[in-house]
Amino acid sequence: MSLRSKKFVQKIKVIKYKEERKEIEIVKLEPKCSVPKKPKKVVTEELLDQPTTSVVQEDVRTYVSRKTKEREGWETVQPSMFRARVEEMCPSTWECCFCGKETMHIIHCPDCGPTAHYCEECCTQIHSVVLFHKPCVWKNDMYVPHESSSETCIRRKDHNECPTAYTKTLAVISLSGHQHKMNMQFCKCEMESVTLVRFRLWPSSPEVPRVAFDFK
Description:
Blueprint: H1 3-6, E1 10-18, E2 21-29, H2 45-48, H3 53-87, E3 107-108, E4 117-118, H4 120-126, E5 136-139, E6 142-145, E7 153-154, E8 166-173, E9 179-186, H5 192-198, E10 201-203, E11 211-214
Parallel strand pairs: 7-9, 8-11
Antiparallel strand pairs: 1-2, 3-4, 3-5, 5-6, 8-9, 10-11
């Protein structure tokens, strides 16, 4: 590439008509954009205000001191926290928080809350509408999974009396990862996968699902 092309110098012909005769002039056009120059290094106030070595060391000592106090605080409270967690593994009350009835086989539902303790009747009534919880009952000095005596069936309230309705048991995976066996009512008016979506459950198969996943 020649030196003239490097400087982006272009030549064009301009035709002018003066007094009925044609004149041709050669005009040089300088480029509008030039090659960008390297920016000059500017010393700003931020560069001048950089912390010195002594200031950095002081900040490090302050950070280490703060973290050391925090670690000592955790070590102090750790035994009490561990004791409280162990104590919560046994019933804190024998009284149903819903009806006030006392029972030796108190039922605790961690999904309902840390203070949710029920009797058999209240637990069955509450979890007939509150689904996918895992209550546990106190038996033989330990909590064991609670199995309700009455089976809950999920059905559509707006399409309950359909003559083609039938009941099917599915395995449902809740958001917490627990597996539940649920009875659900379907009908031949729509596909089972569509009905599951109405229950906010995602089917594992588009036609004949056997597993559904909870989504909210």
